[in-house]
Amino acid sequence: MTKMWKVAVAGSNGRMGSEAVKAVENATDMELVATISSAAELKKLVETGAEVLIDLTVPAATEQNVRFAVENGIHAVVGTTGWDEHKLHNLRTLLTQHPEVGVLIAPNFAIGAILATEFAAKAAQYFESVEVIEMHHPQKVDAPSGTAAHTAQKIADARAAAGVAPSPDATETDEGGSRGADIDGVKVHAVRLRGLTASQEILLGDEGQQLVIRHDSFDRKSFMPGVLLGVREVAAHPGLTHGLDGYLNLR
Amino acid sequence: MTKMWKVAVAGSNGRMGSEAVKAVENATDMELVATISSAAELKKLVETGAEVLIDLTVPAATEQNVRFAVENGIHAVVGTTGWDEHKLHNLRTLLTQHPEVGVLIAPNFAIGAILATEFAAKAAQYFESVEVIEMHHPQKVDAPSGTAAHTAQKIADARAAAGVAPSPDATETDEGGSRGADIDGVKVHAVRLRGLTASQEILLGDEGQQLVIRHDSFDRKSFMPGVLLGVREVAAHPGLTHGLDGYLNLR
Amino acid sequence: MTKMWKVAVAGSNGRMGSEAVKAVENATDMELVATISSAAELKKLVETGAEVLIDLTVPAATEQNVRFAVENGIHAVVGTTGWDEHKLHNLRTLLTQHPEVGVLIAPNFAIGAILATEFAAKAAQYFESVEVIEMHHPQKVDAPSGTAAHTAQKIADARAAAGVAPSPDATETDEGGSRGADIDGVKVHAVRLRGLTASQEILLGDEGQQLVIRHDSFDRKSFMPGVLLGVREVAAHPGLTHGLDGYLNLR
Amino acid sequence: MTKMWKVAVAGSNGRMGSEAVKAVENATDMELVATISSAAELKKLVETGAEVLIDLTVPAATEQNVRFAVENGIHAVVGTTGWDEHKLHNLRTLLTQHPEVGVLIAPNFAIGAILATEFAAKAAQYFESVEVIEMHHPQKVDAPSGTAAHTAQKIADARAAAGVAPSPDATETDEGGSRGADIDGVKVHAVRLRGLTASQEILLGDEGQQLVIRHDSFDRKSFMPGVLLGVREVAAHPGLTHGLDGYLNLR
């Protein structure tokens, strides 16, 4: 814990970025050396000797920011969306020229959500039945959530790999569609409820027993421990890592 | 508790009936005076001085059993299905000739399930959002469960009576049908999971808070406290009562 | 809903008061006519024609504020603590001179928490076992929470009134005290967990079934629907009402 | 799945043993070749060509049964208690003379309970707060349950190894003991509720998020998938394995 990380935050006036500024300032092993609001300010990364850039900006800005960091030997922890295959390919190419630099691009920094998905996929090979329920605030426009769809797919893949039979289901009549969506054989239900932020619950059932894994995100602060974990680990993981699960000790 | 009820059980060799026999035998305020397996044995009701008949038989037998009881001044607690409007009408007519006799016909004797429905309907007038999730064993052929559909309808009625707006829902895309069935404006989700018997969960949400009411039935023994409550209360409720909630003190 | 309530908020620069200001401003049937930060500003109540005063101040100020309101024929909805028996007695005396004025003093405005307690007390007469688990943020200095203690006491009272036996418990060894606190025969457990605000869960068990009633408060916004309900109902309830449950339609 | 395992069950007239007989008979990849009720019947193991012995007997019988199996080259899956260090030492010695034989001794065959403990210990290194709640039927004489104590200890060990600070707790007053037992820094709460069999819930909390892992055992049938897994895996794990987690694929 004697290491003090010199950290810069890009997108520091956004909602996530401003939380990250606070989180870095409160971390006893980090020093906030720069905040960056535009491309013109990227040079501050070099001037301040930043070791890690946290990028929480917008799709139009993130690529330029991350490439600038890599070219200057600065690691990057990225929560911005918009990294398509083309951009990722170019970034990997750039990283081969800077083999000591690490970049983490993570679609979800809530450690609990990632663990819930990992645990569910592992457990799903041992249970006859599995279903997913996600619960979100009622302003959400898509259903089911991307996280729940991702969880269901990982469960389906794990069951396929282990040769598990489909979840039993004798339903004959369900006119209203109460049985939910089917993602590769895994049922997914979406609840919309005022008061909630983002939750997912995985139900696993077998003869005489049930295992339930539930994650609740109450607040965007829930992403900050994952961001800080990324800062602490990124230098030890050179190259591109996709997904925070690559940094978690799950063995 | 000094009163000792003389109780007979019809359908005593069925699954529910045999549980009822055990429950009556274990109740300190009841005496099992007769078990009845066929119409020919109905006279035992009179011979043994039975005060209450528990009918847990089959649709083809229940009407004859209950009418025999009423005609002989014996109260009846009935869990058998098949009581259509025609049979109920005839029973009401018969009861007018025996105004001291009480009959309880209850589709569900699980006190907790009835309370869950009642509480949910009361609470639903105070919350912006409400959804229902029911969870059952995977041999169940219909979805959603009758209990969940009944709960959703009672919630919808209570909200209509109180002038509550529909639950907010900004969903634009839901190709797979993850948002579940819609019962008069209340979303209902059905989960099928090995290991479960019968559960229902009502989620109520408002700004900054959530109220969850959940009932789990693990075993058909869960119906017995309700059956015994029916035996103790039926004499005090002459005429026909439909639903055990009529005997519960919910004020 | 054509009635527009003229509402004043005392304590408008406090945490709860500032939420109340926002809530009143957002309510389509209310008009915020005054905010009051000191005794010197109380006259604004009269000048603006306020009909209802929301008092969310401090124990040292609340009595003067409420008495001023009552003396001027203005109803009051009070969430401030510190109303001991002496102050309540004096207020009741004052109200006899203003029989048309209503005052609500409520220790808890979270409608869901009040409903959870009410429902639990009603259900507890029908279940063999009942226990309470409260869960709060780890800065809380007292355990168990006042709400949980209140819930346990109401459950104990309801069971005593219904003649229910104590919850069965064969525990012989429990050196570490895992079975929790005992409030008049009802076990209460307190969990402290980062990320939570205030939750309580009541578990009711019987042969083969379980009923769970859970309330989660995620945010102090959860109190606002109860405050607004108080504003809408206070004029229809002249005299002193203690506890928001007096305004809820629970029959 | 073409392999057909020849399986014998010792203790076949006990509660667990009779469940195991049914489970083996229902398994499509197993053949029940013998049931053993006494030491005199052990020779049936050899006569029937049994490959795996399931021992669900009593402490006084299990050692003799398992040693007989090992001496005859038969694998053993053991759920009987009473294996102290002395007996285990002797068994290990015997196994060195039969290096191809596998023995599994498992205190708990409920796969879900084992997974819950494993997942909780892994997750506990990433969360600020963690507490354990166990819930059992009210005939249980000890509190907290052995499983919950074991889970709490594994959590404590994982946090110690990862250098995680103790869960924050500002409690100053708790006269009644609502905060539960302390197992190496991890709070454990025990609930006793009619209707439940055996449940444990691990709550993990961090800034703005919560992860809950819950296992419910409804019935002793919940042990059978673990017993069958043991039968299928024991030959591939020569020597002594303690705990079913040694056979689970958790990477």
TrEMBL record, chains A, B, C, D:
Annotated keywords: Amino-acid biosynthesis, Cytoplasm, Diaminopimelate biosynthesis, Lysine biosynthesis, NAD, NADP, Oxidoreductase
Coiled-coil intervals, chain numbering: none
Active site, renumbered: 136 (proton donor/acceptor), 140 (proton donor)
Subcellular location: Cytoplasm
Enzyme class: oxidoreductase
Binding annotation for (S)-2,3,4,5-tetrahydrodipicolinate: 137, 146-147
Pfam family, one: DapB_N
Region of interest called Disordered, as start-end residue ranges on this chain: 157-181
GO cellular component: cytosol
GO molecular function, one term: oxidoreductase activity, acting on CH or CH2 groups, NAD or NADP as acceptor
Sequence ranges assigned to domain Dihydrodipicolinate reductase C-terminal in this UniProt record: 112-239
Organism superkingdom: Bacteria
E.C. no: 1.17.1.8
Pathway membership: Amino-acid biosynthesis; L-lysine biosynthesis via DAP pathway; (S)-tetrahydrodipicolinate from L-aspartate: step 4/4
Residues in Dihydrodipicolinate reductase N-terminal domain copies: 6-109
Binding-site positions, NAD(+): 11-16, 79-81, 106-109
UniProt binding sites for NADP(+): 44
Keyword Magnesium included in the entry's annotation: no
Family: Belongs to the DapB family.
Subunit description: Homotetramer.
Protein purpose: Catalyzes the conversion of 4-hydroxy-tetrahydrodipicolinate (HTPA) to tetrahydrodipicolinate.
Protein's name according to its UniProt entry: 4-hydroxy-tetrahydrodipicolinate reductase
Organism name: Rothia amarae
